[in-house]
Amino acid sequence: MRDAIVIIPTYNEIENIEAIIRAVFTQDKAFDILVVDDNSPDLTGLKVVELQKEFPDSLFLLKRESKTGLGRAYIDGFKWCLERSYGYIFEMDADFSHDPKDLVRLYRACAQEGADVSIGSRYIKGVNVVNWPMSRVLMSYFASKYVRLITRMKLQDTTAGFVCYKRHVLEAINLDDIKFVGYAFQIEMKFKAYLKKFKIIEVPVIFTDRSKGKSKMSSGIISEAIFGVLNMKLKSLVGK
User: Fold this and answer.
1) Distances (CA, A) of 211 to 24, 71, 132, 133, 174
2) Pairing of the two strands 32-37 and 59-63
3) How far is CA 112 from CA 20, 86, 106, 195, in A?
4) Taking a C-beta distance cutoff of 8 angstroms, is the pair 21, 103 a contact?
5) Which of 26, 74, 147, 175 has the fewest CB atoms within 10 Å of its CB?
6) Which residues of the chain fall short of a pLDDT of 50?
7) DSSP, residue by residue, the chain
8) Torsion over CA: 140, 145, 151, 154 (sign)
9) pLDDT for 27-42, tens place per residue?
10) What pLDDT digit, counting tens, does each position of 192-236 carry?
11) Are 32 and 58 in contact (CB under 8 A)?
12) 184-195 vs 134-151: helix crossing angle, rounded to 10
């Protein structure tokens, strides 16, 4: 067992899953991988089972019965990892929007530079997003600004989904109390870590939009982020 594991949530990622797994395993640092698959109709989970024959000691699969949101997939993945001895637990997308080469940089920020949480940030040095339409770039950028304004977190990329957590951070957060299930889950996790005064470091990365498969973004996810963040902040002020 390695000291670090990468959680990759999947739903219909058959076009990407083998390539992303192999890319993670070819990095200079050794990582284990946990794929959390939401019973993908395209049989992503079966492809992972097939690859487990090649990587029996480093590739794991957590099969869920249905698609209940990104947040719940990660929570289940976190709990699985915390039942083992991993010291560093990562979140990463399956579609290569997060470059596997940056995993080592996020790891070093936590293992060598004193971070409790390291974030692959699209906005710490300008706007580093490739292949997004301008409307989506602006929506994401100003969403992060809005979250920063409401929560007072001193982070440029509050909605980032490329993250490394030290084990003790996840142990300190009541995972069963996490409310958001969509992409706002990323905001809530950072906010919980911020409230507990963990050291959060942003590492500049280039985010590249997927070239294969379909985005899971929806209007409901956006609404959750906009309105849920304000409610989250208000509850923190009254001690709930």
Assistant:
1) 18, 23, 11, 13, 36
2) parallel
3) 26, 16, 10, 23
4) no
5) 26
6) 218
7) --SEEEEEEESS-TTTHHHHHHHHHTSSS--EEEEEE---TT-HHHHHHHHHTTSTTTEEEEE-SS---HHHHHHHHHHHHHTTT-SEEEE--SSSSS-GGGHHHHHHHHHTS--SEEEEESSTTS--EES--HHHHHHHHHHHHHHHHHH----S-TT---EEEEHHHHHHS-GGG----STHHHHHHHHHHHHTT--EEEEE--EE--SSS-----HHHHHHHHHHHHHHHHHHHTT-
8) positive
9) 999 999 999 999 999 9
10) 999 999 999 999 999 887 556 555 554 555 666 667 787 788 787
11) yes
12) 30
- The tokens describing 149, both together, are 């304004």
The position carrying tokens 């997927």 is 210
Q: How many CA atoms, within 13 angstroms, populate the side-chain half-sphere of residue 73?
A: 28
Q: Copy the structure tokens of residue 92.
A: 């990463």
Rg of the Cα trace of the chain?
17
Contacts by 39-44 with C-beta closer than 8 Å and gap 24+?
A: 39/63, 39/64, 39/65, 39/66, 39/67, 40/10, 40/11, 40/12, 40/13, 40/14, 41/12, 42/12, 42/13, 42/14, 43/14, 44/10, 44/11, 44/12, 44/13, 44/14, 44/17
d(CA 59, CA 61): 7
List, in order, residues 6 or more apart from 83 with CB less than 8 Å away.
none
